């Protein structure tokens, strides 16, 4: 099993499977975060999807030395603010 750092580095290189695994690992806590921010479950699911789409589009900008969770949460927070 890959460590979070290995997954992050592979995802930053464009590895879809590694990104999918990071999504699986972060989906529940990130959904809770977004849900608390927006207050509506359906809006939270939509924003979560937007968050992961934006993350994948910009994955090459991600620095795998930093925690993936912090990076994806920042994207989610910006999506919530834009909402």
Task: Write a structural description.
The chain is built from 4 helices and no strands. It is mainly alpha-helical. Helix 3 crosses helix 4. The longest helix has 23 residues. The protein starts with a helix and ends with a helix. 25% of the residues are buried.
Could you give a short description of this structure?
The protein is an all-alpha fold and 83 residues long. The chain has one domain (4-82): RNA polymerase sigma factor, region 2, helix turn helix motif (Rna Polymerase Sigma Factor, Chain: A, Orthogonal Bundle). Helices cover 77% and strands 0% of the residues.
Question: What structural keywords apply?
Answer:
83 residues; elongated; mainly alpha; Rna Polymerase Sigma Factor, Chain: A
The overall strand count is 0
Distance between the termini: 37 Å
| Beta strand % | under 5%
Share of helix among residues? over 70%
Under CATH, the homologous superfamily reads RNA polymerase sigma factor, region 2, helix turn helix motif
The topology string of helices and strands comes to HHHH
Biggest sheet overview: none
Total DSSP helices? 4
Q: What is the fold's blueprint, element by element?
A:
Layout: H1 4-12, H2 16-38, H3 41-57, H4 68-82
């Amino acid at each position: 099993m890959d460590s979070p750092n290995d997954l992050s580095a592979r995802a930053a290189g464009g590895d879809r499977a590694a990104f999918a695994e990071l999504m699986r690992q972060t989906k529940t806590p990130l959904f809770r975060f977004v849900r608390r921010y927006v207050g509506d479950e359906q809006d939270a699911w939509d924003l979560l999807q937007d968050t992961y789409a934006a993350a994948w589009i910009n994955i090459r900008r991600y620095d795998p030395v930093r925690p993936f969770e912090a990076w994806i949460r920042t994207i989610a927070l910006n999506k919530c603010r834009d909402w």
